Amino acid sequence: MNATAYDTLKTRYAKDWGRAVNHRFVNELVNDRLDDKTLRGYLIQDWQFSYDFYSLMGEAIATADTMSAKVRLGQQLGFIANDENSYFHERFSQFNVSEEELLSPELTPASTGFRKLYRQTVDAHSYAQALAVLVVAESMYLDWAEERTAHGTSMPEKAQNVGWVEVHRGEDFTEWVDFLIEEFNRVADPENDDVADCFANAVHYELGFFDDAYAWEDGRDKVVRG
């Protein structure tokens, strides 16, 4: 049996994928050892490319070639705009994040890279490329959220930590990721350079985003003005 497009590309970038799933950030989060300052900075950065993520979801809806896919993508966009958006605002309130910090923060390299990747993918007007980026973002988070919590049997207790896990695991999120994988396998050619590059860059920036969460703590000059 031939390997699917998803399995082919995930295997190709398995080293960095594994490093992300088992990252220090993930381990500290699920074990309630993550410093609030680290999570605070991480969420501020994540918020910066949420705008572009919404655009990417919209592009996937626009370029999907079946009505059922458009409907499913639209349903997930609604979830992100409600449940996940609520988590962000609850944490911003908890951590006293100012409007200025949200509107004009300094961006880490991964945040800058994500914004560029999302915008380029939107401009490509390709369903397969949009899926390549989305399937990495969502399935990698499902992997760490399920694996590092033993499928929900070993959850963190702090609200800010358990909340971030809960929006990235469970039956509904698993069904969403399964849909993305099935769609990606249906329309994508893993040997297409544009598709493979989107997948590879998404893996690269996901790992880098976890690394960058510790940029200030470790004293490295890794931030740039966006």
Account of the protein in words:
The protein is mainly α and 226 residues long. The protein has one domain: Heme oxygenase-like (Heme Oxygenase, Chain A, Up-down Bundle), CATH 1.20.910. The protein has 12 helices and 2 strands; from the N terminus they run αααααααβαααααβ. Strands 1-2 form a two-stranded antiparallel sheet. α2 runs parallel beside α12 (193-212). Mean pLDDT is 93; it is low at 219-226.
Q: What topology emerges from the helices and strands here?
A:
Layout: H1 5-12, H2 14-21, H3 24-30, H4 36-48, H5 50-63, H6 67-94, H7 99-103, E1 106-107, H8 109-124, H9 127-147, H10 159-166, H11 171-187, H12 193-212, E2 224-225
Antiparallel strand pairs: 1-2
**Unreliable runs:** 219-226
* CATH class placement: Mainly Alpha
The overall number of domains is: 1
Give the helix level as a range of percent: over 70%
Number of helices: 12
Using the alpha-carbon principal axes, give the shape.
globular
List the strand order in the largest sheet.
1-2
**First-last Cα distance:** 46 Å
- The number of E-state strands comes to 2
Order of helices and strands: HHHHHHHEHHHHHE
Mean pLDDT figure: 93
Report the CATH architecture.
Answer: Up-down Bundle
What composes the largest sheet? Answer: 2 strands, antiparallel
Give the full name of the CATH homologous superfamily. Heme oxygenase-like
The quaternary organization reads as single chain
